[in-house]
Design brief:
Catalyzes the oxidation of 3-carboxy-2-hydroxy-4-methylpentanoate (3-isopropylmalate) to 3-carboxy-4-methyl-2-oxopentanoate. The product decarboxylates to 4-methyl-2 oxopentanoate. By secondary structure, the chain is an alpha/beta fold. It is 40% helix and 20% strand. Helix 1 crosses helix 10. It binds 3-isopropylmalic acid and magnesium ion (MG).
Length: 359
């Protein structure tokens, strides 16, 4: 009998609660199939927490996450809060939870699902074989550097500072090398070392660490060039490691290569096995409450949680195979359907996946 895993659930805003409900069904089915025990606790986070508690990340929610073995997040944000001051924005909660939980590494796989190739804006022959992971530094850089405004003779001036220390670079780079080792053993480190001092420190650090991983092939690519190469030769990338802001931009680009952002999961990790898992897509306020959102990215986030935080490899495979089988059988939610009139809803998709889960 396995020990009980505590999962903190943050449904969040928009379609968040709808997709989370399907992921919870998958947790229940996994308990039945494998005899695992999951104890779930849910709390307010994001816009809904602003509305009900006056802050996007209530202390109670943070405490719940700290008690857990892993966190499953739906999505946060929406137009309702877009014009709020910084402290009252859902994004501030997201940055706050990453920092408070020490989640310095964000892992976003971009995989082409064969049966969905037609959903991409890129030519199938360019995409063929694309299977890459962006490893993004998540708690440093310009996101967390000092920010302020001051008056000058030319009017107000705004300052964002980008800061990285060696330790912050080392820990993410080690993690990326280790991930590359489990895959095709290629690491692409992305920076802007021709211009930025933080990037020069980044590159020096990567080069100093590289000899510890002689089996991994390393390349350095400047960020502007990387943005271009991702469109030109996506299948040649295996693991991409980069700083916070570059990773934010490149991971969106990589996600869109697949044409199916509703399918992509992500993990944010710290030093141990603890992690926060969430779909790459946002809260999609335009379709919230209609029961048509694609729950697959959230369901695949559960698979990622099983593999990376709990070491439940087989259970993770069972979920991934169930998703594959349901897609192969032709079932589609509206976002990935070619014939929109045949699209199924969120609950129907969740039920089909649960039914397809077999050991
Ligand atoms: C992401 C998002 C966030 C980020 C925003 C919502 C603050 O774009 O998770 O990639 O920039 O990190
Ligand atoms: Mg982003």
């Amino acid at each position: 009998m396995a020990d009980t895993k505590k999962i903190a659930i943050l449904p969040g805003d928009g379609i968040g609660p709808e997709v989370i409900a399907e992921a919870v069904k998958v947790l229940k089915k996994t308990e039945e199939l494998f005899g695992y025990k999951f104890e779930t606790e849910s709390n307010l986070f994001g816009g809904i927490a602003i509305d009900e508690k006056g802050t996007p990340l209530p202390q109670e929610t943070l405490e719940m996450c700290k008690r857990a073995d892993a966190v499953l997040l739906g999505a946060v944000g929406g137009p309702k809060w877009d014009n709020n001051p910084k402290e009252l924005r859902p994004e501030t909660g997201l940055l706050g939870i990453r920092k408070a939980l020490g989640l310095f590494s964000n892992i976003r796989p971009a995989v082409i699902f064969d049966c969905l190739k037609e959903a991409s804006t890129l030519k199938p022959e360019v995409l063929e074989g694309t299977d890459l992971i962006v490893v993004r530094e998540l708690t440093g850089g310009i996101y967390f550097g000092e920010k302020f405004r001051r008056d000058t003779d030319n009017g107000q001036e705004a300052v964002d500072t980008c800061v990285y220390n060696v330790k912050e670079v080392e820990r993410i780079v080690h993690q990326a090398f280790q991930i590359a080792r489990t895959r095709r053993k290629k690491l692409c480190s992305v920076d802007k070392a021709n211009v930025l001092e933080t990037s020069r420190l980044w590159r020096e650090t990567v080069n100093r660490i590289a000899p510890e991983y002689p089996d991994v092939e390393l390349e350095h690519v400047l960020v502007d060039n990387c943005a271009m190469q991702l469109l030109r030769r996506p299948s040649s990338f295996d693991v991409i490691v980069t700083e916070n802001m570059f990773g934010d931009i490149l991971s969106d680009e990589a996600a869109m290569l697949t044409g199916s952002i509703g399918m992509l999961s992500s993990a944010s990790l710290g030093e141990g096995s603890f992690g926060l898992y969430e779909p790459v897509h946002g809260s999609a306020p335009d379709i919230a409450g209609q029961g048509i959102a694609n729950p697959i990215a959230t369901i695949l986030s559960v698979a990622l949680m099983f593999k990376l935080s709990f070491n439940y490899q087989e259970a993770g495979d069972v979920i991934e195979n169930a998703v594959k089988n349901v897609l192969d059988a032709g079932h589609r939610t509206g976002d990935i359907a070619v014939d929109k009139s045949k699209a199924i809803g969120t609950t129907a998709m969740g039920d089909l996946i649960v039914a397809a889960m077999k050991r």
